[in-house]
Every structure is written in C-alpha cells, then in structure tokens.
Amino acid sequence: MNSKNVLVAGLVGATLACAGPAHADLTANTTTAGKASIINVGGDGASIFKGKRQRTDTMVGGRSVSLIIDIDNLRFVELDDKKKTATVTPLAAIADELAKVGVGAMQATLTKTAQTRTVSGMPCTVHDVRVSMPFSVTGKPGDGMDMDMVLAGTACLSTSAPGLADYQAFYRAAADSGFIFGNPAAVKSPTGAAQAKAYAAFTKKMAEAGMALETHVTITAAGNNPMAAMMAKLAASDITTTVTKVEIGEVPPDKFEIPAGYKVKTQK
C-alpha cells in the first residue's frame, strides 16, 4: 500500500470517541472521495472496532486490503485478500522514523462552530480542525531542508452516535501507545512519516470530542528550500470521508487474526 492509499486508510479509521460503561463491538461503513496528489482516492470502506483492536477494510487498485491495529500486541497487520499475504509490522519497527521526522512542537487545534448537520440520520456539530507539524525532509533536522506539514479542514462530530464510548476508548489507548492510523509502510519516507504523525494528532483531537461522521481535510507542505516544491506536490491532498452507517453487534474475534493459509512476512 503506497503512501497515498495510506491516507485513505487513515481517514476511514478517523472518520467513524462519553456514554455508559457497557462495551460493544462497532462497525462503521464509509465512503471517501477526493484526490491525494495525482491519484483518485474514492471508494467505500469500513472500520471495525473490538476492544483494543481495529480493522479497516478498503479497496486498493481493485483488490481488498485490510489493516489491523492490535494495541495489546503492539503491531500492525496488513492483509491482502488477492495475494493471500499478511505483513506484520511491530510498532517498535517504525519508532525511529516517527521520532526523527519531527523538528519542533506539533500544534493541533479543534474549534467548535455553531453549525450542525445530520449525517446518515445522526446529529453532529461542525468543528474546524488544524494540525501543523514541522518536519525534516531528509530526517536530519537543521540541515536547511526543514518544512511544515499542515492538515486543515472540518469534522462533523457526534456525541450521541452508537458505540461512542468504545470508539473513544480505542483511540485513547492507541494514542497512549504511540500508534499511527494508517499503513506503517508510509513512515519509511520523511513526508509519509510527517503525514502519519499529523493524522494521528488529527484523529486524537477528534476522538476526544466525539465520533466523526464527516470530514473534509486538505494537506499541504511548505518550506524555503530547494525541495519545497516537490515535497508540496507529494503531500498535496484533498479528501472527504462520510460515515454511511454505524452498527453495534458482536464481531467474531477471528476477524482480527491472520487467516489460515496466508503467507506471513514480519517487518524488522
């Protein structure tokens, strides 16, 4: 999964956080439209939550790809249905890339507006969201190649959507453990790592205030160095994600396991 498709997986997971103590499995169906750089990111997807595990299903290049975030086991699992493969990435394997990309303090703001909407039969309030993160293009802060990654847009957040408490509990635990909300392969490039960290901050901010039923975000990168124009083109994205249905109901535990017969590769 390339870094642009990672944006889709991240937004599907983010656009789905409170209420009573009962725990429930949550399934949220979504539709995504827009562009990430030069490719179309439109399509349908779903995010499934069960305790400290999340599975995001998306269509990538005509095939079904699933990403599992397993907080208890500190790992990501990418399942490719067509190839019958599973790629396991321990959280520790991407820690260095995430740590070295930042060159300053990240700023994330969430501002409630007076605008309200009804999305898929559920009420929500529009919030303005902005995340700004200084990052190093080369992974070597201070060498004159530093830039700013900016994610900005709106999120319509609901405080009455079904499964809200479990949604919030998952993202709180994931953020505390240092997870990102997209395919970990993206962090191998400085731009991808910066995007992943910005999305993590974006998602955390939203989840603290409610469940995102609709989001519209743009991503830009700017800087004063020879690579600024190229990096800005790679980062440029404009994506809208809408929740079409939310369901509460038991999800089988094996939905979060590697299917029998899949070839497994573990990233170092």
Summary of the model, kept short:
With 268 residues, the protein is α+β, with helices and mostly antiparallel strands.
Question: How would you describe this structure to a colleague?
Answer:
α1 (3-14) packs parallel to α4 (190-209). The protein is globular. The chain has helices at residues 3-14, 95-101, 164-177, 190-209, 228-235, and strands at 26-36, 39-40, 43-50, 53-60, 63-70, 75-80, 85-90, 107-119, 122-136, 146-158, 211-222, 237-248, 263-266. It starts with a helix and ends with a strand. Strands 1, 2, 3, 4, 5, 6, 7, 8, 9, 10, 11, 12 and 13 form a 13-stranded mixed sheet that branches. It is 23% helix and 44% strand. The chain contains five helices and 13 strands. A hairpin with a 4-residue loop joins β5 (63-70) and β6. It is of the alpha+beta class and 268 residues long. It has one domain. Residues 1-9 and 17-22 have low confidence and may be disordered.
SSE topology:
Elements: H1 3-14, E1 26-36, E2 39-40, E3 43-50, E4 53-60, E5 63-70, E6 75-80, E7 85-90, H2 95-101, E8 107-119, E9 122-136, E10 146-158, H3 164-177, H4 190-209, E11 211-222, H5 228-235, E12 237-248, E13 263-266
Parallel strand pairs: 7-13
Antiparallel strand pairs: 1-2, 1-3, 1-12, 3-4, 4-5, 5-6, 6-7, 8-9, 9-10, 10-11, 11-12
Helix pairs in contact: 1-4, 3-4
Quickly list its features.
alpha+beta, 268 residues, 44% strand, 13-stranded mixed β-sheet
The secondary structure category is: alpha+beta
- Low-pLDDT residue intervals, each spanning 5 or more residues: 1-9, 17-22
Give, in order, the helices and strands: HEEEEEEEHEEEHHEHEE
Number of helices, counting only DSSP H or I runs of 4 residues or more: 5
Number of domains: 1
Radius of gyration over C-alpha positions, nearest whole angstrom:
18 Å
Helix content: 10-25%
> Biggest β-sheet: count, sense, barrel?
13 strands, mixed
The average pLDDT is 83
Distance between the termini: 17 Å
**Structure summary, number of beta strands:** 13
The outline comes out as: globular
Which oligomerization state do the chains in this entry correspond to? Answer: single chain
Measured by DSSP, the beta-strand proportion falls in: 35-45%
